[in-house]
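Our consortium's second objective concerns turning raw sequence data into structural hypotheses that experimental partners can test. To show how far this objective has progressed, the report includes one record in full. It was chosen at random from the queue rather than selected for favorable results. The single chain below, 355 residues long, was entered without modification.
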Amino acid sequence: MAMGTGGLRVRACRLVTASASILLLIAPCEVAAQFGGLLPGEQIPIPPAEIPNVPAPSGPTSIAPPAASLGTPGGGVPAPPPAAAAPPVSPPPAAAVAPMVPAGQVALAVAARFGRDPPSITGGLLWRVYGEKPDPNGGFKIMREDRTASPVFLLPPGAYIVHVTFGLASAVKRVQLRAETVREVFEIPAGGARFEGKVGDARIPLGQIHFDVFKGSQFEAGEKRPVAENVSTGDVVLLPEGLYHVVSNYGDGNSVMRSDLRIQPGKLVDTTIVHRAAKITLKLVSEQGGEALANTAWSVLTPSGDVIKESIGAFPIVVLAEGDYVAIARNEGKVYNQEFKVESGVDREIEIVAR
């Protein structure tokens, strides 16, 4: 399901596991500073940046999770063979618990799934276990860290805070360990988005287009910071469920498209954004059909005088949205200009004769 305007095509399929091409954006680990009145195992909301001095990854990280695969977009996901089927998520399988627990330790077995329903999440998770009480500086000490799907932590009896991230989505619980093994299943309401761009029916090649993702609708007031930047074609961005908008930039000219989409738990949304643009090659020659003159400074303007692109070279290429433009060439102290029109999908050369 998706919402959008103009050149947006969306299809959704079940997100079975993380993909090897997933772009994981791990947010800083944020844990609430007070847990008054919480019961063991109760879920705790995480206000942003509430606890200082908690180490966490500093930015986007590409991770190839183990045993990863994605179903065919839009075509449904075939059921895996019985031998490869994931065990029930609640509770974690007993086989995952360490058979020998040292004296003075308690086993904590954890797993995660999409919301309240399967499937379980089999890759791309980052687990951290913190002591329940902050140190004198107000920070929370990391006791354990793990990136496997269903780790088992061996810890002394006591209370702990367990935090798990999956892309930009996360969940946290307070856990009390006494004597018996404790099993916890974390519900992470997250989905994925994957993008590509086209001009007409032609796919825009990798490296010529990138995408920025923002929280909320494009029509909401106020400035927003992107939650994911410079996303490439085919990368999967993992996001908490909710409404987002994507800004698609084709080339470095003025071909920019914006569309809204909705992320649902356990679903991968494939989004195709259609640009109405073309590649234009600029060329200054001494005579029609002649060689291009080097060291030419170029400016591309709208009819109202807004500068779209400036460059220096014999054959600059600029991607422009369809419409009317003026090309200005400067060479050896002389200035030349020519009006031209861009039609969507029609790549062509604009030749200016230096007369």
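The partners drew two points from this record. The chain has two domains: 1-275, 278-353. Residues 103 and 156 are 9 Å apart (CA to CA). Both points have been shared with the crystallography group to help prioritize constructs.
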